[in-house]
Structures are given as structure tokens and as C-alpha cells.
Design goal:
Mean pLDDT: 96
Low-confidence stretches: none
CATH superfamily: Spore Coat Polysaccharide Biosynthesis Protein SpsA, Chain A
Distance between the termini: 18 Å
CATH class: Alpha Beta
Number of strands: 14
Number of domains: 1
Largest sheet: 10 strands, mixed
Shape: globular
């Protein structure tokens, strides 16, 4: 099984912790965010991972070499000029997903005890091109889904910007940044190189099934700001105890 970890962000909100390292190598509970996510993916059966890099990419490579790639195949997709955003990053790494099997995608700076096996199973049952995890929690931007959990739009609650791609009644959910995606997604890749996964999903949802997987019972933490580090430590301790 394969996976991609998004790890090319600059980590500006976590400064000064990211002044000398990529955000993915910031430690919580004495272990880097990247290591926690790699070990969790391995726990759920992943044996091949590609990681995109930009900021302090050489330190990422050195870390992986020191860890002997955790005993699995790990490839680097380096975004030299600038980070390509999540969608652009996946597009650049398309060559890696050559076995016609669904694959995981996650963010290095997100920690959750979500059961990835259940997410993978839900994706297989849905018949969707892609399935991503969602929760009912307060945030500034929401994915909009219909009663069948199909993606129907997106909303920025602060700016009141709304993008709707399906008619009917839609409910708001928070995006959790864990995905299972069929490699056929690369048959419908945007022409540009810099774009987000959400924009890609909204484009695809106009004529294909993009599904949400509700996981309200799980812990979830965006380790993007210094004020979230204490919560991240607690989540990390739980996750590491389960591996």
C-alpha cells in the first residue's frame, strides 16, 4: 500500500521553531511530526511513501537517512522553486502511484487517532474517486456535503465566500486532511501546477463522486501554531502508545 505525506510547507506560523528545520521535523512528545505520521501509516499497512519537500529539504533527507527510511521505501518529491500547494504537490508525485490501487494522503502537521483502515474500507464501499475524513467542529472554512456525504461545495465562513457544485441541501463539515484516493484521479489533472486539493475536488465533484467520511469520535489536532503544541503533545503521546 502507498501513501503521500504533504510536508513542503514553510511553517511560518510555528516560528521560531521552524527557523532551523522544516515544520514536519518539529517535535511533540519528543518525536517529530513526520515520524509519528510515518509510523502510523506503517501501522496501517503502508510500505511505500512519497514525501514532498521544500523548506530545509536537506534536513528532511538527512533525517530519513538517519532513520533508514523506517525500513520501507520512501521517495522525496522536491519542490525547489516554491511549494506547489497540496494539489500541485500530488500532481507532481503522480509517477509514484503506478499500481492502480487506492492510496492514502495526509499532512505532516496533522495528528489524529483516526482509524485509517476504516477510512480505507469506507472509500472502497462508497465507489468514490476520492474519500476524505471530515468532522463537525468549529473552523473558518467548511466542506459542504449532501445527505449521502457527497461533496457539494465549500465555504469560507469569515469572508462568506461560497462555492457550490451540487444542488440540494448541504451541511457544513470541517476538513481533516486524511484522504484515500484512486489513481484514476490523475486522468483529470488541472493544467496548472499550483493548486489545492480542495479546488481539485470541487472541480471533480461536478461530475464524479467525491465522498466524505465522518469521524467525530476521533481526536484531531492541527499542529500549525505554537498555541496548539500542548494539545499536540497529548495527542502524540496517545498515538505513540498505540503503535
Amino acid at each position: 500500500m502507498k501513501a503521500m505525506i504533504f510536508a513542503a510547507g514553510l511553517g511560518t506560523r510555528l516560528r521560531p521553531l521552524t527557523n532551523d528545520r522544516p515544520k514536519a521535523l518539529v517535535e511533540v512528545g519528543g518525536v517529530s511530526l513526520l515520524e509519528i505520521n510515518i509510523r502510523r501509516l506503517i501501522h496501517f499497512g503502508v510500505r511505500e511513501i512519497i514525501i514532498n519537500t521544500h523548506h530545509f529539504a536537506e534536513k528532511m533527507a538527512a533525517f530519513l537517512q538517519e532513520k533508514n527510511n523506517f525500513g520501507i521505501r520512501i521517495e522525496i518529491s522536491h519542490e525547489a522553486e516554491r511549494p506547489l500547494e497540496t494539489g500541485g504537490g500530488l500532481k507532481k508525485a503522480a509517477w509514484f502511484f503506478d499500481d492502480d490501487q487506492p492510496f492514502f494522503v495526509c499532512n505532516a502537521d496533522i495528528l489524529s487517532n483516526i482509524d485509517l483502515q476504516k477510512l480505507y474500507h469506507a472509500h472502497g464501499q462508497s465507489g468514490a474517486l476520492a474519500t476524505y475524513a471530515i468532522q463537525q467542529r468549529d473552523t473558518s472554512r467548511y466542506m459542504l456535503h449532501d445527505a449521502n456525504m457527497q461533496l457539494g461545495g465549500w465555504m469560507n465562513a469569515k469572508t462568506k465566500t461560497v462555492k457550490v457544485v451540487r444542488t440540494g441541501q448541504l451541511q457544513m463539515y470541517s476538513f481533516s486532511c486524511f484522504h484515500v484516493i484512486n489513481p484514476q484521479i490523475f486522468d483529470n489533472t488541472p493544467a496548472e501546477d499550483y493548486f489545492s486539493m480542495i479546488d481539485w475536488y470541487l472541480q471533480l465533484a461536478q461530475n464524479q463522486t467525491i465522498s466524505g467520511y465522518l469521524h467525530n469520535q476521533d481526536r484531531w489536532c492541527d499542529v500549525g501554531k505554537p498555541e496548539t503544541l500542548a494539545e499536540a503533545e497529548n495527542v502524540a503521546i496517545q498515538l505513540l502508545s498505540e503503535l
